[in-house]
């Protein structure tokens, strides 16, 4: 099986680029951030603090997380409910970052993620795919951009969706999430030794896509 691991900080364009690449290559796209977001959302809805590991761990046995591909789009379910849209809020992103620091949550999701890569060719994006989840991935790309470039993109996405969040707030969230993701003990965000670094600060979508295709074509 071929696996492409794409890691990097929030807002580097991983999911948009990965989704398009997977569609073009005929691979299954696995958005691991969505899994952490779903668990974060579950904790918030249960009235628990996502940073409280014991409280979140007590919830894990009841969490029925399911992924399904509908017309090429990944949908994520908590039991029967499609939470693909509900997980896209800033609050769910922060909660995801908090539960992502919890080793029991990471172990819970690791198995699910490895299982998916065993069965089919995947393009998997996250924070620890090249370092922990798929250390033997065929291709590893570390996708990054400056915090300002990432915050600007995220802010534009929100504007397009009619969500009116001040830019300063988005930038502060990007920086806080970077801090949380790089400083945690469990699987911190870092570039794998054998990953190719791609900085998209100065690249638009098509240029980033072309750069990724070139990196992948060298290995697949
Ligand atoms: O990529 P996305 O912004 O949806 O991820 C949400 C959060 O989930 C990240 O900030 C990160 O803390 C966590 N995450 C993780 N490991 C992954 C994917 C996401 O810890 N493989």
UniProtKB/TrEMBL annotation:
Q: Which domain of life is it from?
A: Bacteria
State a GO cellular component annotated for this protein: cytosol
Q: Which organism is it from?
A: Faecalibacterium taiwanense
Q: Where found? A: Cytoplasm
The answer, when asked if Protein transport is one of the entry's keywords, is: no
- Could you tell me which residue ranges the Cytidylate kinase domain spans? 4-215
Q: What is this protein called?
A: Cytidylate kinase
Q: Name one GO molecular function term.
A: ATP binding
Task: Describe the family membership recorded for this protein in Swiss-Prot or TrEMBL.
Answer: Belongs to the cytidylate kinase family. Type 1 subfamily.
List the GO biological process terms. Answer: nucleobase-containing small molecule interconversion; pyrimidine nucleotide metabolic process
Which PANTHER family does this one have? CYTIDYLATE KINASE, CYTIDYLATE KINASE/PANTOATE-BETA-ALANINE LIGASE
User: Catalytic activity annotated for this protein?
Assistant: CMP + ATP = CDP + ADP; dCMP + ATP = dCDP + ADP
Which UniProt keywords are given for this protein, alphabetically ordered?
ATP-binding, Cytoplasm, Kinase, Nucleotide-binding, Transferase
Q: What is its main location?
A: cytoplasm
Broadest EC class assigned to this enzyme:
transferase
Keyword hit for Translocase: no
Identify the EC number(s). Answer: 2.7.4.25
């Amino acid at each position: 099986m071929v696996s492409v691991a794409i890691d990097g900080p929030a807002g580097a364009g991983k999911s948009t680029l990965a989704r398009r690449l997977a569609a073009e290559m005929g691979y299954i796209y696995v958005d691991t951030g969505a899994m952490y977001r779903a668990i974060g959302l579950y904790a918030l809805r249960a009235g628990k603090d996502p940073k409280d590991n014991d409280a979140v761990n007590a919830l894990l046995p009841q969490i029925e997380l399911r992924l399904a591909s509908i017309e090429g789009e990944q949908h994520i379910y908590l039991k029967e409910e499609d939470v693909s849209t509900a997980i896209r809020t800033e609050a769910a992103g922060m909660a995801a970052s908090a539960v992502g620091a919890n080793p029991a949550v990471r172990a819970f999701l690791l198995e699910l993620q490895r299982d998916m890569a065993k069965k089919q060719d995947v393009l998997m994006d996250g924070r620890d795919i090249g370092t922990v989840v798929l250390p033997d991935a065929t291709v590893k790309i570390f996708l990054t951009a400056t915090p300002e470039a990432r915050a600007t993109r995220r802010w534009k996405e929100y504007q397009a969706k009619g969500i009116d969040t001040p830019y300063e707030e988005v930038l502060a969230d990007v920086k806080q999430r970077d801090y949380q993701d790089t400083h945690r003990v469990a699987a911190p965000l870092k570039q794998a030794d054998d990953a190719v670094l791609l900085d998209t600060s100065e690249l638009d979508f098509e240029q980033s896509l072309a750069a990724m295709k070139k990196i992948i074509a060298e290995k697949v």
